[in-house]
Amino acid sequence: MRIAENCSIISAPPVDINGSGISSNYINMAKGKDLSIIISAGVMGAAAAVTLQQATDNAGTSAKALTYLGSYRTQYNATVASQVDVPAYTAGALTIAATGDNSVYIIEVDANSLDINNDFTHVQVVVADPEVASVVGVNMVLTEKRSTEDSAK
Q1: Are 105 and 96 contacting, i.e. CB atoms less than 8 angstroms apart?
Q2: H-assigned helices in the chain
Q3: Which run of H or of E encompasses 15?
Q4: How far apart are the first and last CA of the chain?
Q5: Is 113 helix (H, G, I), strand (E, B) or coil?
Q6: Least confident range of 8-12, 61-65, 144-148
Q7: What is the pLDDT of residues 28-50, one digit of tens each?
Q8: pTM
């Protein structure tokens, strides 16, 4: 599979989230089947909670929490730079630990997990303000893109 041809990639570059946290744009899940949220944590000064919101449009109309089952984590090991870890799965909501420096977290969201009966089609990721210097970046990959005609069904 060629990512550039078969996926949409949305990015919020790494920034110090002290004082503001980070919130992505709302992503239209009607245009794809699965959303992989990839959170890169640099140096974390304190823990930061990660939540997902679902809404009926990209403006965040009727936004409410979207529950996800868990997340995956892998951590860069400077002494074994060639090491490829199988990410460890943790059930429940994600909190990036203060000891989570140089970690990558992945949350998988299926379009069917949204409240589609009430026209919820958009997803946003929010990383809370840890209130001290902490560097975090968010990338989202929407897979199995659908055409406009398919998403209207």
Answers
A1: yes
A2: 3-6, 148-151
A3: strand 8-16
A4: 25
A5: helix
A6: 144-148
A7: 999 889 999 999 998 899 999 99
A8: 0.85
pLDDT value for 147:
58
| CA distance linking residue 76 with residue 104, whole number of Å | 8
B/e letters for 102-122, b = 16+ CB within 10 Å, e = fewer, are ebbbbbebebebbeeeeebbb
Integer Cα distance of 66 and 125 in angstroms: 10
- Decide which of 146 and 108 is more confident: 108
Q: Work out whether the CA dihedral 32, 36, 42, 44 comes out positive or negative.
A: positive
User: DSSP strand E in 17-152: where?
Assistant: 22-23, 27-28, 34-44, 48-55, 64-65, 70-75, 88-91, 94-96, 103-110, 122-127, 134-143
